[in-house]
Amino acid sequence: MSNLPLVSIVTPSFNQVQYLEKTIRSVLEQDYPNLEYLIVDGGSIDGSVEVIKRYASRLAWWVSETDCGQTDAINKGFSHAGGQIYAWLNSDDTYEPGAIREAVEFMQHNPQAVMIYGDAHYLDENDRVIGEFPAAQTDLKRLRSGYVHIPQQASFFTAAGWKAVAPLDPTFYFAMDYDLWVRLAQLGPILYHPRVWANFRLHRDAKTMAADDRCWPEMLRVHYRDGGSRFASIVWKSWARKLAAPYIRWKRKRLFQEKG
């Protein structure tokens, strides 16, 4: 095990007891032996703490206390991490079996990469696969044009990369991951591996369902911060997304109705 890099996984959580144990087990039941798991709970009152306590002996560190939201929780978790590879897994998402082992192997075969990512399924509230995340290879230039195609749940990055650009910007509610990817891509390659590593849960209370209209304005903040033009493609894409938002919300509701 000494020649295997330590992987640090952080789960930010707040009142997600319905899904939290599945998330925890998907990490702890991985077949990768050099793993540390950290859970940062925001002071849940729904039974989440009791779930965490059942697994406390297998956790590297955990806390339950009031925080400033998901971004703050992720930063707090990584401040206690000691690994060479980092990732975070939200408390309603899950890893596929073997995901961490495969991710480490891919990163070891591509030591120039500062971040890697795979594919992800969309899951509903009952763990049924309802779609596939449209993952694809991207890079700094494409990211800055709005061509993202990275499932956060299936992404892993080097601790060195994180420490060079950390922390996540706490003023971001939605696009803190996009901001991180842009900053990491300025350091070195980010590489896509077409293997399903994670599951991205869509449910009525998820941020992706309830507040995704906040994502593109935050992405534009990154764009303008880095000197982007008001005539760049990402600006036009943001307007197109705004116009398409009613249709996208309708389509998602239909998806739940059809799978329900």
Blueprint of the fold:
Elements: E1 7-13, H1 17-28, E2 35-41, H2 48-54, E3 61-64, H3 70-78, E4 85-88, E5 94-95, H4 99-109, E6 115-123, E7 129-132, H5 140-144, E8 155-158, H6 159-165, H7 176-185, E9 190-201, H8 207-210, H9 215-225, H10 233-259
Parallel strand pairs: 1-2, 1-4, 2-3, 6-9
Antiparallel strand pairs: 4-8, 5-9, 6-7, 6-8
Helix pairs in contact: 9-10
Overview of the structural elements:
- This protein has 260 residues and is of the alpha/beta class.
- It has a single domain (7-203), classed as Spore Coat Polysaccharide Biosynthesis Protein SpsA, Chain A (Alpha-Beta Complex), CATH 3.90.550.
- The chain is 40% helix and 20% strand.
- Strands 1, 2, 3, 4, 5, 6, 7, 8 and 9 form a 9-stranded mixed beta sheet that branches.
Q: Which short descriptors sum up this protein?
A:
260 residues, alpha/beta, Spore Coat Polysaccharide Biosynthesis Protein SpsA, Chain A, nine-stranded mixed β-sheet, 10 helices, globular
Write down the CATH topology: Spore Coat Polysaccharide Biosynthesis Protein SpsA, Chain A
Briefly note the structural class of the backbone: alpha/beta
- Low-pLDDT regions: none
Q: Percent helix among the residues?
A: 25-40%
State the name of the first-level CATH class.
Alpha Beta
Could you give the order of the helices and strands?
Answer: EHEHEHEEHEEHEHHEHHH
Compute the number of helices: 10
When the domains are counted, the total is 1
Total number of strands: 9
The radius of gyration over CA amounts to: 18 Å
Global shape: globular
